[in-house]
Specification:
D-Amino Acid Oxidase, Chain A, domain 2, alpha/beta, eight-stranded mixed beta sheet, single chain, FAD/NAD(P)-binding domain, 2 domains, 31% strand, 9 helices, disordered C terminus
């Protein structure tokens, strides 16, 4: 590689984890480069944006990025429904593209250089710094940069550190931002759908997104390499919700987006190697049960930034970062894996209906703790039995 511009840290990927990591490091006085393959941070609005109120407060997300607040949740299966409502707002649906843009702007204001339209190609270590080659998406000569440390924030691509061997859960989702009237079923609440009618092998959703707009999406989960079988397309599931559940015959399509996320079972991702460290979805910060990732990615970036400041040259000192993140995941993530494999991969309609009927007995606070706190005390015995069965069958996570 040729002699190149030098940075303390190069962050590859400007999603929530990458953007937040860059702004924290830049605010701490480090010379930071934030790279993204897209030409605009608003080009790919690839998340449904649902999160808790604590996320806004903890990470300084301004109200202007809130499309709608929510204080209720409804879950529909093929034949059953459960609903819970709180007296005040519990969370928000964010403008995800706006969040990416906001974090990058905050990083730039602190002195970070933003480089869009470039993808990571390779990295070498000369013993003193990492040598990184970036390739323009629209053609042209490559750009070489030097960095004391490289942060892999490329999500499921894991472009810098690569994917670890072993089983992955693959989440494929599509979402439409539609122009449609809101009513009591959609206003101020998150609505989820399970079962063969609405979301075979996954779940679907309707989220409010401000006046006259809804996020309507569908997601399917499978073990990587497994055949999905003959199932309806995600697009057709979205249309079914719009027509049959919401009773719409016509709607405007403001945007369509989607993507694929790979979750490494047991969080056995490569967290760090030499002068590189991974954050966000690149280390499976997405929860496997609900595919919720924003607040976990932001938290991961915060932990990573703290350890980067302590160990600017990377290396073994970053092992403390991995230990802290594994403690953050903890037992809740392993139980979420078991729940996800059971609900999306092994339960038939009758069992899902019974589960939704059982959930209806929970009080609102208990339901929110299960869905967003991943506290499965009431499910503990059945999950332990499920885990034991998998071990006996030789199907433990590898």
């Amino acid at each position: 590689m040729t002699e190149a511009a030098a940075y303390d840290v190069a962050v590859i990927g400007a999603g929530p984890a990458g953007g937040h990591c860059a702004r924290l490091l830049a605010r701490a006085g480090r010379k930071v480069l934030l790279v993204d393959r897209l030409g605009s941070l608003r080009d790919n609005d690839f998340s449904s944006g649902g999160t808790t109120l604590e996320t806004l407060k903890e990470f300084g997300i301004p109200e202007r990025l809130v499309g709608s607040y929510w204080n209720g949740i409804t879950i529909h299966s093929t034949r059953e429904s459960s609903a819970w409502t709180a007296p005040s707002s519990l969370g928000a649906v964010l403008d995800f593209a706006g969040l990416r843009e906001f974090l990058a702007e905050e990083a730039a204001a602190a002195g970070c250089r933003i480089l869009l339209g470039h993808r990571f190609e390779r990295m070498e270590d000369d013993g003193e710094r990492a040598l990184v080659r970036l390739r323009p998406e629209r053609g042209g000569p490559p750009l070489d940069v030097r960095a004391g440390l490289v942060v892999d924030a490329t999500g499921g691509a894991r472009a810098v550190l690569g994917r670890s061997a072993g089983k992955h859960l693959v989440f494929k989702g599509v979402e439409h931002l539609v122009e449609a009237p809101q009513d009591g079923r959609t206003r101020d609440r998150l609505t989820f759908f399970l079962g063969e009618k609405w979301a075979p092998g996954g779940y679907s959703w309707v989220f409010p997104m401000g006046s006259g707009r809804l996020r309507v999406g569908a997601l399917r989960m499978a073990f990587e390499g497994d055949e999905a079988g003959r199932r309806p397309s995600l697009e057709s599931l979205i249309e079914r919700i719009l027509r049959e559940h919401l009773g719409l015959s016509d709607w405007g399509l403001a945007d369509r987006h989607g993507g694929t996320v790979r979750y490494r079972l047991g969080q056995r991702d490569v967290f760090h190697r030499g002068r590189a460290l991974a954050v966000g979805d690149a280390v499976s910060c997405i929860n496997p049960l609900g595919a919720e990732g924003i607040r976990h990615g932001l938290r991961c970036a915060e932990v990573a930034a703290r350890h980067i400041l302590r160990h600017p040259g990377g290396g073994r000192g970053l092992a403390a970062y991995e230990r802290e993140m594994r403690a953050y995941f903890g037992l809740a993530w392993r139980l979420s894996e078991l729940m996800a494999s059971r609900v999306y991969g092994r339960m038939d309609d009758a069992r899902i209906d019974r589960g939704v009927r059982w959930l209806a007995r929970l009080k609102s606070a208990e339901a929110f703790e299960v869905l967003f706190g991943y506290r499965f005390r009431r499910f503990a015995m059945s999950l332990i039995k499920e885990s034991s069965a998998w071990l006996l069958e030789g199907k433990a996570w590898a």
